[in-house]
Write a structure and sequence with these properties.
Structural class: alpha/beta
Strand content: 15-25%
Number of helices: 10
Helix content: 25-40%
Radius of gyration: 19 Å
Low-confidence stretches: none
Number of strands: 14
Strand order of the largest sheet: 3-4-5-10-11-12-13-14
Bound molecules: flavin mononucleotide
Shape: globular
């Protein structure tokens, strides 16, 4: 067995994973069919990367309302479930493990996706960003503030999506509660000014997230559920940090300790520099790892050396790699051999077709 910390096995939930090199969720916009169902291209793409300790798929909408971008796959219709079945089978046939990231984009969506109806959010606050619609990039709009019944309906959508995921053969789900999407919109004061039990205190701002986590975990087992947080997200999708942001995330992370069987918590280091942002935490793992007793997955900006280092320092149990998994389908083998890593082509991140998707070479 390798003495590289990244290549040591790890148990998450009921699964024995062969290594700690996880594939981070990445939207690739290849579900370009009317059903937004995964295609044979998805099968090939994920199969090529099956040696990851765990694949976490691209964000996949839990309902039609949840969509925020063109050509992203869903996990709410029969055709989508059938498409994903081919993906999970191919990954399992190669000995891999795969979770699906389930998301709701909230106010980052656009009326063009909803026959002119407004996207939804905790409060009617425009993020003043851009939405990637079928007609190209458009300015975001002021969203509809969800009623309490509508919030409960979205929790049910997540539960249904999780059950669909199990039907489709996934080993589990990751709830996308990061990066300025719907749950994150509830966590932060810049997007949540509600006066009811879903706004104000830490407990209230986290209520929708924990209600959904409870519903999903009870439906499919908490060992099959991971969650994702990005506490120092700032300056994109209308998210700004204030004095209560990090305390809210501390509350959430500490409360996650009550979920002893949870598969993992996946926390992202700052995606943009936050050294000059008041109240931001610059080193997320150093701040949050000591607060969480479960399996901690770190992410953002890691390479083979720094990924190994962060585990050796005890700051994470596993590392997820995004960009390097685009351009290195055999990332695990490259780490094992100490081989150079290929750089990805940013121009084909979100374009249709096989180019820049399934054509990155493997080592000889
Ligand atoms: C093309 C692309 C698409 C992404 N889509 C998602 C997504 O669907 N869900 C998510 O949680 N993060 C998404 N991310 C963020 C990545 O998971 C990750 O946090 C980020 O790229 C930093 O990791 P890295 O330095 O290893 O690339 C995306 C990143 C990229 C590059």
């Amino acid at each position: 067995m390798s003495d590289n910390a990244l290549l040591k096995p790890i148990k998450i939930g009921p699964y024995e994973l062969p290594n700690r090199v996880f594939m981070a969720p990445m939207t690739r916009n290849r579900a370009d069919n009317p059903e937004n169902a995964p295609t044979s291209l998805h099968v090939e793409y994920y199969m090529q990367r099956a040696s990851a300790g765990l694949i976490i798929t691209e964000g996949s909408q839990v309902s039609k309302q949840a969509v925020g971008y063109i050509n992203t796959p869903g996990i709410h219709s029969r055709a989508q479930v059938e498409g994903w079945k081919q993906v999970t089978k191919a990954v399992h046939d190669k000995g891999g493990h795969i979770f699906i990231q389930i998301w709701h984009c909230g106010r980052i969506s656009h009326p063009d996706f909803h026959n002119g109806r407004l996207p939804v959010a905790p409060s009617a606050i425009n993020p003043h960003d851009r939405s990637y619609t079928p007609q190209g990039f458009k300015e975001t709009v002021t969203p509809h503030a969800l009623t309490i019944d509508e919030i409960h309906a979205i929790t049910r959508d997540f539960k249904n999506a999780a059950e669909n995921a199990v039907t489709a053969g996934f080993d589990g789900v990751e709830i996308h509660s990061a990066n300025g999407y719907l749950f994150h919109q509830f966590f932060t004061n810049c997007s949540n000014t509600r006066q009811d039990e879903y706004g104000g205190s830490h407990e209230n701002k986290a209520r929708f997230f924990f209600e959904t986590l409870d519903a999903v975990g009870k439906a499919i087992d908490f060992g099959k559920v991971g969650i994702r947080l990005n506490p120092s997200a700032h300056g994109f999708f209308g998210i700004t940090i204030d004095s209560d942001t990090i305390p809210t995330f501390e509350y959430i992370v500490e409360r996650l300790n009550d979920y002893t069987g949870l598969a993992y918590a996946h926390l992202t280091e700052p995606m943009l520099p936050v050294d000059d942002v008041p109240y931001a935490v610059t080193k997320i793992a150093e701040h949050f790892r000591p607060r969480y007793r479960g399996t901690y997955v770190t992410n953002c900006g890691f390479n083979a050396d720094s990924g190994k280092g962060v585990i050796e320092q005890g700051l994470a149990d596993a590392v997820s790699f995004a960009k390097y998994f685009i351009s290195n389908p055999d990332l695990v083998e490259r780490i094992r051999r100490g081989a150079p890593l290929a750089e990805p082509d940013v121009n084909t991140y979100y374009t249709p077709g096989p180019k820049g998707y399934i054509d990155y070479p493997f080592l000889e």
